[in-house]
Amino acid sequence: MILTKVFTFLSEGDFYALNITDEVQSLVATSGIQEGMALLFYQHTTGALMIVEHEAGILVDLEDALDRIVPPVWDYKHHLRGYDQNGASHVRTALLNVSVTVPVLGGRLSLGEYQEILMVDMDPGQKPREVLIQVIGE
């Protein structure tokens, strides 16, 4: 069986992090699947999905590390298009993951004690975003 849902939310932008673990677990429960996997896919080019501890210090550390690796202000060739100024967001996304897969065992996400599923939107400005979630199994 496969159950698919698109989770839509309003992002505040600028490294906005949203914990979506409960939404994914709710979909797993609704599916009735006991053994399988949950696949999540971020449907934009300026954000990522990650499995980390949802703790403010970790998010600040991650953003600081990305600022050093991919500075927010720089001469990004992406900006030459004249369309937008979000080259850093695109490069950061390319270094991170736009999808994660989590095993489903006994009808529950098989996450470790401190693991949570976070969506991080790195683009500036408020806008709607979507994560496609598929629960696959039996």
Features:
138 residues, alpha+beta, Jelly Rolls, five-stranded antiparallel sheet, three-stranded antiparallel sheet, 8 strands, elongated
Q: Count structural domains.
A: 1
Q: Residue ranges: pLDDT <50 for 5 or more in a row?
A: none
- Going by CATH, the homologous superfamily would be YjbQ-like
Report the principal-axis shape.
elongated
H/I helix tally: 3
Helix content: 10-25%
- The radius of gyration over CA amounts to 16 Å
Largest sheet: 5 strands, antiparallel
What is the second-level CATH architecture?
Answer: Sandwich
**N-to-C order of helices and strands:** EEHEEHHEEEE
Quick overview:
With 138 residues, this protein is of the alpha+beta class.
Can you tell me about this structure?
With 138 residues, the chain is α+β, with helices and mostly antiparallel strands. The protein has one domain (2-137): YjbQ-like (Jelly Rolls, Sandwich), CATH 2.60.120. Helices cover 25% and strands 39% of the residues. It is built from three helices and eight strands. It has helices at residues 21-31, 56-69, 87-95, and strands at 2-11, 16-19, 35-42, 47-52, 99-105, 108-109, 116-121, 127-137. Strand 5 and strand 6 form a beta hairpin. The longest helix is centred in the middle third of the chain and has 14 residues, at 56-69. The termini are close together. The mean pLDDT is 95.
